[in-house]
């Protein structure tokens, strides 16, 4: 089996992250999966962005949870990356899913619930209800740094695949794996490197695997997947090591 190449926030290295252009580019580059992050707006819409605030990647300031969808849609989410992306807007979960459907994407869609800092009331139920209404040809994987979100999502959708995200602490990852709530571990690549002689026998998909050295390390060990800002580059290196 080839190691899956999962585009981190889309092709984040060459497009403004978590925007439709980034996801389109990831698909063009042949990514096996797409990873993204979901928050909730003041008026209950599911918003795609990594940070809890809009400051770093848009023309605005403040928390997503304090803004309505209309206010968020007025912000520029692309010009920080380059003038050619001026006017790029923050997408909703629906816009991303509809793009994947339109592009006939059949890979892995890893949706991270960003609830480790702000526990958006009812976000698990909203995400679950929305995704359950969609007829999709891609595989859904839910992940979160917040253990309770995984517990809630698993109770709502026990047949969906789940992944534990972590940088260092493996307590909940081990507990959830034993109880079969999660199937995969999505650890920091630095944790993987530090534990290279004691890696567990679980499906590993490290993040964020950007250097050629780290990519080769993962491909040679045939990890289940890597999460990277550069899916195009990863595809070339995988071809050289794993073929396919």
From TrEMBL:
Domain GP-PDE: 3-238
Pfam family, one: GDPD
Gene3D superfamilies tied to this protein: Phosphatidylinositol (PI) phosphodiesterase
Molecular-function GO term, any one: phosphoric diester hydrolase activity
A Gene Ontology biological process term: lipid metabolic process
Name of this protein: Glycerophosphodiester phosphodiesterase
Native organism: Pediococcus parvulus
């Amino acid at each position: 089996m080839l190691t899956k190449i999962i585009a981190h926030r889309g092709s984040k290295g060459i497009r403004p992250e978590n925007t439709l252009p980034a996801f389109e580019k990831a698909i063009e580059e042949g990514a096996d999966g797409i990873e993204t992050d979901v928050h909730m707006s003041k008026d209950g819409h599911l918003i795609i962005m990594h940070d809890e605030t809009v400051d770093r990647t848009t023309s605005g300031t403040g928390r997503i949870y304090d803004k309505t969808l209309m206010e968020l849609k007025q912000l520029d989410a692309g010009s920080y990356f380059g003038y050619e992306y001026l006017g790029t807007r923050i997408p909703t979960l629906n816009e991303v899913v509809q793009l994947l459907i339109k592009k006939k994407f059949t890979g892995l869609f890893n949706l991270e619930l960003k609830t480790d800092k702000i526990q958006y009331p009812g976000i698990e139920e909203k995400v679950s209800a929305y995704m359950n209404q969609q007829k999709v040809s891609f595989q859904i994987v839910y992940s979160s740094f917040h253990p309770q979100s995984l517990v809630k999502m698993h109770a709502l959708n026990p047949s969906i695949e789940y992944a534990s995200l972590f940088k260092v602490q493996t307590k909940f990852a081990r507990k959830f794996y034993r109880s079969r709530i999660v199937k995969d571990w999505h650890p920091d690549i630095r944790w993987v490197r530090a534990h290279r002689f004691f890696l567990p026998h679980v499906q590993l998909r490290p993040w964020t695997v950007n250097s050629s050295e780290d990519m080769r390390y993962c491909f040679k060990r045939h990890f289940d997947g890597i999460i990277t800002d550069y899916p195009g580059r990863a595809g070339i290196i995988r071809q050289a090591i794993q073929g396919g």
